[in-house]
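Narrative of activities, Objective 1.

The group set out to show that a structural description can be obtained from nothing but a protein's sequence at a throughput compatible with the screening campaign. Below is one input-output pair from the validation batch, recorded exactly as produced.
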Amino acid sequence: MSSAAVFDQIAFADIKVIALSRHGGLSNAPYNSLNLADYVGDEPEAVRGNLAIVSRLAGAGGISVMSADHGNKVNVVTSMGTAPSGDGLVTKESNLALLALAADCVGFALADSDSGVIAVGHAGWRGVLSNVMQEVVQVFVSNGGKLSQTSAVIGPAICASCYEVPSERVAQFLAQCPAAVSDETHLDLRAGVHSSLAAHIDIAQIYDLPGCTQESEKLFSYRKANGQPTGRGGLLIVRASS
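Output recorded for this entry:
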């Protein structure tokens, strides 16, 4: 894949997980340039072109794009295009990439190359509180994934030092997901995702891709945009056909 389009990546046998950067695409400012979201005001033709670039470079026949709504609904998909509303996608199809769009939220992926099941999830603070991670794991397993042979990947997201929130929200996390609490005014959403996944998957098989969306110019960030329009990148997973 083009180095400009890839922020980081990891492979497990015939499965690739790719954290996409904001570069290497067709969108003009302020969405420049690899914006993959069709709901932020970008030109539809540019978004379609960017998705085609990603699909081709990932070696996929098409992409199922998540329509996140900050909940914990998970959809099983078998075809390309915009998926039904939800914050998790699962498939057994080869050459069908799954894409979790995100700016500062946490994208995560599950890969079982033996059974051929793959999944992606999207976790903002609401998703972490509602434990979308557990829901993705459950649907992944119900579709044939074996957790004993599954690897998980947690993508770049806003880091704890950059993610300041009201103290009331921290109190919610102390009650429901204390692993995500950094201090009295900051949350570490990636730590919350990691903690939930570690309840099901061997910690040695959980891979954290580094990178803070607010600090890196290579990544889209809702907070960095400070109310101005911005694009969305995300985490992509695909299994090659045998």
